[in-house]
Amino acid sequence: MQCIICKTGTTHPGKTTCTIERNGSLLVFKNVDAEICDNCGEAYFSTETTEKLHSLAEEAIKKGTEIEIVKLP
């Protein structure tokens, strides 16, 4: 798909790092599947991936995690 940010790049499957900061918690997810723009590097996540990241983030925040780094399989 064409990148909606830079309007010139095309996305391709790849892996990236996603950082979520909320309520004083900093969560870093590494090795996340995404469609990545070959021009600007913007990452787009599927609905399934987004739901998984939100679920993992909610669990960590409920436990009171301040900083967590998770490498996904």
Question: Topology of this structure?
Answer:
Elements: E1 11-22, E2 25-37, E3 43-44, H1 47-62, E4 67-71
Any overview of this molecule?
There is one protein chain. The protein has one helix and four strands, in the order E-E-E-H-E. The protein has one domain (11-71): Ubiquitin-like (UB roll). Strands 1, 2, 3 and 4 form a four-stranded mixed sheet that branches. It has 73 residues and is α+β, with helices and mostly antiparallel strands.
The low-confidence parts are none
Q: And the CATH topology?
A: Ubiquitin-like (UB roll)
Under the CATH scheme, which class? Alpha Beta
Judged by helices, strands and strand pairing, the structural class is: alpha+beta
Radius of gyration: 14 Å
Number of strands: 4
Taken in chain order, the helices and strands follow as EEEHE
Shape: elongated
How far apart are the first and last residues' alpha carbons, in Å? 25 Å
Mean pLDDT: 96
Q: How many structural units, i.e. domains?
A: 1
Key phrases:
73 residues; alpha+beta; Ubiquitin-like (UB roll); 4-stranded mixed beta sheet
Task: Summarize this structure briefly.
Helix content is 22%, strand content 44%.
